[in-house]
Hints:
By secondary structure, this protein is of the alpha/beta class. Helices cover 39% and strands 23% of the residues. The chain has an 8-stranded mixed beta sheet with strand order 2-1-9-8-7-10-11-21, with helices on both faces. Strands 14-15-16-13-12-18-19 form a 7-stranded mixed beta sheet, sandwiched between helices. Helix 4 (95-116) packs parallel to helix 5 (154-165). The chain is globular and about 85 Å long. The N and C termini lie far apart (72 Å). Bound molecules: NADPH dihydro-nicotinamide-adenine-dinucleotide phosphate. Residues 146-150, 173, 175-177, 205-207, 210-211, 214, 225-227, 230, 233-234, 248-251, 282, 381, 383 line the site of NADPH dihydro-nicotinamide-adenine-dinucleotide phosphate.
Amino acid sequence: xxxxKGIYIAGRWEDGATMIENRNPSDLxxxxxxxxxxxxxxxxxxxxxxxKAQPIWWAAGxxxxxxxxxAIGTELMARAEEIGTIVSREEGKPLAExxxxxxxxxxxxxxxxxxxxxxxxxxxxxxxxxxxxDVRREPVGVVAIVSPWNFPVATPAWxxxxxxxxxxxxxxxxxxxxxxxxxxxxxxxxxxxIPAGLFNLVSGPGRDVGQRLVExxxxxxxxxxxxxxVGRGIAAAAVQNMxxxxxxxxxxxxxxxxxxxDLDLAVAHASGAAFGGTGQKxxxxxxxxxxxxIHDAFVEKLVQSAQALNVGxxxxxxxxxxxxxxxxxxxxxxxxxxxxxxxxxxxxxGGDRLNRPTEGYYMAPTVFxxxxxxxxxxxxxxxxxxxxxxKAGSYDEALAIANDSEFGLTAGIMTKSLARAxxxxxxxxxxxxxxxxxxxxxxxxxxxxxxxxxxxxPREQGTYAAEFYTTVKTAYVGAGAPE
Length: 483
Ligand code: NDP
């Protein structure tokens, strides 16, 4: 496959002002394609086209919107293996995960296809006689979507599906590391019977195309997933224009392993949540807080588990952990290993780049023990196959450590005690709490998001998505007396 697409505006594919090359992180000799980068004029044109298309789409009604979303979702699920292969080839996750991601993306569309048909709104009596009140949801307008590379199909899907379901138009700036996935998703949306300009793909560098998009006064709402520094800039730009904004950002997800936990289950969940997706998940377990009574036994088994993981080419059968996404990310990961050693943490396994038959960005799953919560490794999001173990003497101490973070996306506890599990559920400051489950792994029909620096604005997914993708109108009707 050699692609040259990247820009879809006003119902047509266009050439880019410049091009970028996309290589497979599992095999740097594999060029996936070259992809267009939008100019400022193309971005502006996409916004104008979106503005024109949005009222046409809203007026088309709920059956039309339902049918279109259902068709997109059904095709994504049917082609999960084919498009999942593209995801794995350019992002580096093992094929089973790539395929699973695309299937999940399809589920977001079919879920929101059904959500279109839900009766939205409220009726109320007025405090003034003879007046009726209704409260309805209307589209917010033109939605800018800026998405990251780690879930290049699922993350945009959980934003695009509700945006279209609630009657909005979309201008999407995908991550520049994963353009092929963006094109694959756009091709499916583009073949639907929708107004030209309703959905636009404007690939390009974040600091250039992304920045211009989020600063535009022609955008009514911005949905972003990515890093905290970029999120802060987007929030500042949004406030300048009074644009509605929703952001999912960094994390430092803790997982508490108590002395009464099922040890093997705890190791399996910690290892899966720390190293799955090469640790490049916003829900990854990066701080393991372990009760001192089982600390040594847990750590020994965790290291065995990490060392047994098969790191290799994402498309090769048997691979459990693919490469890191890019050279820059790998360098950052290895720098964090040095930071950890420098801070006095004990490197138990991994920490180095691996050689495989093909040249790629492979890194060994890495476990640090003897860490403290004030170390940089436990404060900053690394987005790496690195996890840090801390010791706690009691449940209370473990909870205090878990809560001592600027982030609050997901958090987990492994315990057989109902009392501890219930207390944790109520007192852990995080958007999603998991009991006897990994910190990663969420459903598509319920809200997803965090607290603190992890999230800003209304929640994503499930019925809660309506809060962001719609605006509420309260109508007062004085019908008068019949003549
Ligand atoms: P970024 O936040 O830089 O990128 C996310 C998206 O924002 C991309 O589409 C990017 O475009 C775009 N972007 C970048 N700069 C701007 C800008 N000034 N204005 C508007 N949009 C912009 O994350 P990275 O992909 O560079 O990853 C860096 C770190 O971010 C990771 O190491 C990880 O810690 C964190 N991260 C967290 C994620 C999460 O789910 N919580 C997801 C991804 C990253 P482009 O691709 O062209 O740069």
